[in-house]
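Today's session is about reading a structure prediction critically. Students often jump straight to the picture, but the first step is always the sequence itself: look for stretches that repeat, for charged clusters, for runs of hydrophobic residues. Only then move on to the predicted structure, which in these notes is written as discrete structure tokens rather than atom positions. Here is the chain we will use throughout the hour.
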Amino acid sequence: MSEIFGIIFVFIGIIFDFFGCLGLVRLPDIYNRLQASTKCVTLGTVSILFGLFLMRGFSATGIKAILCIIFVILTAPVSAHALARAAHRSGVKLWNKSVCDKYAEDK
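Below is the predicted structure for this chain, in token form.
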């Protein structure tokens, strides 16, 4: 039964990764692309790793998958925020149809 749930989570993760990659190609500026790639990594990769954990259980592979999940959840959003802030500070413009700029409001 856990094999079936594991395969379902892996499939969901592959779908998230596919749409994240599609967002990297289709979205207009770096800020939107960072949002798509962060969701891709956080939801897609974590789902694949969780599916692997469900399939392998508490073996060495399963424990490594859990540790990787924790690492990805802690580092992916922080790195995306740092990249977006650095891009804004270096003068990378937002897309011309962007609605608001919270970083500029904070200055």
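Discussion point for the tutorial: The chain has four helices and no strands.
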